[in-house]
Design goal:
With about 240 residues, this protein is an alpha+beta fold. The protein has a single domain (about 20-225), classed as Coagulation Factor XIII, Chain A, domain 1 (Distorted Sandwich). The chain has four helices and twelve strands. The strands form three sheets. Strands 3, 4, 6, 7, 11 and 12 form a six-stranded mixed β-sheet that branches. The chain has a four-stranded antiparallel β-sheet with strand order 2-1-5-10. A hairpin with a 4-residue loop joins strand 8 and strand 9. The longest helix is centred in the N-terminal third of the chain and has 18 residues, at about 1-20. It starts with a helix and ends in a 13-residue tail after the last helix. The protein binds 2-acetamido-2-deoxy-beta-D-glucopyranose and copper (II) ion (CU). Keywords: Carbohydrate metabolism, Cellulose degradation, Copper, Disulfide bond, Glycoprotein, Metal-binding, Monooxygenase, Oxidoreductase, Polysaccharide degradation, Secreted, Signal. It catalyses: [(1->4)-beta-D-glucosyl]n+m + reduced acceptor + O2 = 4-dehydro-beta-D-glucosyl-[(1->4)-beta-D-glucosyl]n-1 + [(1->4)-beta-D-glucosyl]m + acceptor + H2O. It is found in: Secreted. It comes from Phialocephala subalpina.
Length: about 240
Amino acid sequence: MKSFVSALGVLVSATSVVAHSTFQEFWSNGVDEASSCARLPLSNSPVTSVSTADIVCNAGTKPVTTICPVTAGQNITVEMHAQPGDRSCTNLAIGGNHYGPVIVYMGKVDNAASGTPTSWFKIDQEGYSPTTKKWGTDTLNDNCGKRSVKVPATLAPGNYLVRAEAIALHAASSAGGAQFYMTCFQVNVASIGTVNPPGVAFPGAYKATDPGILINIYQASSIANYVVPGPAVWTG
Ligand SMILES: *[C@@H]1O[C@H](CO)[C@@H](O)[C@H](O)[C@H]1NC(C)=O
Ligand SMILES: [Cu+2]
């Protein structure tokens, strides 16, 4: 019995680690840039405080010098997986009932290899659809962890960080229970556009009590009109 219990303990802790995930890879208009311009987090553990610096680009990242080329009006793709370096489509991108929205932000910066934006605008989001009963994270899992987003055509050229985020809400019915998984990618946008859209600050954009962050997702009535946290999407 004792060995059964300890084996169960190992199984349970292994499962909860497997459920954690990281946005790891980046594609520019269909070209696989792998993790070359990703500020990879040191672990796949979530950030749970919306008010610390960790909410910007995760809790400690590996420095990287590459800046991926991006063209305004074309698509970029962010790719999430559970384990570092594992791009297998047979493993869920984010499992363990880690349901929630998937959001992509960009922020302008002088040098994407060293700087961190003070202002972020949202270019894409998927919350919950009562019709399909799918969360953004379900769609990620349906697409082997990939989500493609159009970089607005009117965006001004220059260095930016792309901030890809999944928020797991399986334990979000108490404050501090939501789990934030984000990675920042270093990019340079080529563009004939001129727009510098208004943005929000991290920390600051989210509150622990936002309706999309403090929520019981097991109650159909509370997710029927799910409100994704942060500002409105800017599409250019
Ligand atoms: C490009 O991104 C948009 C979302 O901004 C998406 O609807 C579209 O399917 C993407 N196109 C491709 C080819 O992935
Ligand atoms: Cu988790």
